[in-house]
């Protein structure tokens, strides 16, 4: 009888814990399953957020890397150039209208409709947002916190010649969601 009593002492707490765990799993899984189509109950949490400064001596960032520098596929997703922001061949960016807030629901169709590998300086200004599909097919958003432009002063006898605008640096904030890009 004492062997049976010792089993009862640990079986009951284990069964209670299993029932509690099942309840937690069901509470997390069932609401999205029964939600009406197109309705998201909670915003999709970001996998990670970060900030970076892109400039001549630090021209690229692998957005698949965690902010602590680990992970990633070692392919630059966003690249600073003097006359544009560009991507690797496996990444895409899409410039959003100023009124649009970047979300996965906005970014997927924006990238499908007008994703590109190059956004020229004439279209870049502080405060604008881009959607990005990284080289590892993660979906994200990039906010241009500060775009510094300048005109190179040439020592040329020609006067009145318009000088091209160049990018001095771009400070970005980014959010990479834990969802596939397609």
Describe this structure in words.
With 182 residues, the chain is of the alpha+beta class. The protein is built from 2 helices and 9 strands. The chain has helices at 2-34, 104-114, and strands spanning 46-55, 60-61, 78-81, 84-86, 92-95, 118-120, 129-133, 138-151, 165-180. A 5-stranded antiparallel beta sheet has the order 1-9-8-7-5. The longest helix is centred in the N-terminal third of the chain and has 33 residues, at 2-34. The protein starts with a helix and ends with a strand. The mean pLDDT is 79.
Short description:
With 182 residues, the protein is of the alpha+beta class. It is 24% helix and 34% strand.
Strand order of the largest sheet: 1-9-8-7-5
Radius of gyration: 25 Å
How much β-strand is present in the residues?
A: 25-35%
Quickly count the helices: 2
């Amino acid at each position: 009888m004492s062997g049976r009593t010792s089993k009862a002492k640990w079986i009951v707490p284990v069964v209670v814990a299993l029932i509690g765990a099942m309840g937690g799993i069901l509470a997390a899984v069932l609401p999205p399953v029964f939600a009406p189509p197109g309705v998201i109950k909670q915003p999709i949490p970001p996998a990670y957020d970060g900030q970076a400064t892109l400039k001549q001596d630090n021209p690229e960032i692998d957005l698949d890397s965690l902010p602590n520098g680990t992970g990633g596929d070692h392919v630059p997703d966003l690249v600073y150039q003097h006359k544009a922001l560009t991507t690797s061949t496996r990444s895409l960016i899409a410039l959003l209208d100023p009124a649009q807030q970047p979300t996965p629901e906005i970014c997927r169709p924006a990238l499908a409709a007008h994703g590109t590998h190059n956004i020229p300086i004439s279209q870049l200004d502080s405060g604008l947002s881009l959607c990005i599909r990284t080289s590892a097919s993660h979906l994200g958003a990039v906010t241009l916190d500060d775009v510094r432009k300048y005109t190179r002063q040439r020592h040329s006898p020609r006067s009145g010649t318009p000088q091209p605008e160049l990018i001095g640096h771009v400070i970005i904030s980014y959010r990479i969601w834990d969802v596939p890009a397609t």
